[in-house]
Amino acid sequence: MKILVLQHADCEHPGFFRRLLAEDDHEWVPIEMDQGETPPPLDGFDALWVMGGPMDTWQEDAHPWLAAEKVLIREAVTERGMPFLGLCLGHQLLACALGGDCGPGKPEIGVLPVILTERGVESVFFDGVDSPLHALQWHSAEVTKVPEGATVLATSPDCAVQAMSWGTRAFSMQFHMEVESDTVSNWAEIPEYAGALEKALGADGLPRMQAACAQHMAAFNRDAERIYINWLQSTAQV
Asked: Catalytic site residue 88?
């Protein structure tokens, strides 16, 4: 497959998924939206991935490219039926692109449990993934209105829409499963993330989050590989 990957920060890339993509000889083409790069036409790509970022979906005045990105996501998902995967901001952008909405939410920062809904347990996307699962959370916004036709696949006490699907080929997660050993340290260099981390966990929040991720890394990687395989399986559905 040839996958177009929209990124919103240098260090917020597909992470652990890069290893899986390389093992399967899939090509992924990153576009840094925050640096003013313009996505190429979707022709010639087999799928679209949208990663996380420190900006919010409604900050189009500060980041004008957000509006065009939502249009591109809508074209990919609704007009072309392209397989889609969205993570964190990418999850929220999918909701907005399809007619849903996002807004400020209760911050979730740390390694926290995510609970699959009944539909999530039945979904191919989470096949073979235990519930609850533990995942890295680092967000202060959430999907506040689910798009028409979307299905909520996972939830948590502080964020109702932790994962969703639309149709048979578009999936998104508010949480992070792409975590690697240097993910937390890299993301902590982003001022917005660093501020949120200290506010939520205190001055020693960084080493505490690093330790929590190290403790759960094997499970992160196991679940990420399972979700990746499931997503690939979903790409064959129509």
From this structure: yes
139 assigned to active site? no
Tell whether the model's pLDDT for residue 100 goes beyond 80: yes
How confident is residue 74, by pLDDT bands cut at 50, 70 and 90?
very high
Q: Which of 108, 178, 180, 213 is catalytic?
A: 178
Structure confidence at residue 236 (pLDDT): 84
Report the C-alpha gap between 131 and 174 in whole angstroms.
16
Please give the Cα distance from 212 to 7 (Å, whole number): 25
Whether 91 is catalytic = no
Q: Where are any strands of DSSP class E within the chain?
A: 2-7, 27-32, 47-50, 84-87, 101-116, 133-145, 150-156, 159-166, 170-173
Which residue among 88, 102, 159, 213 is the active-site one? 88
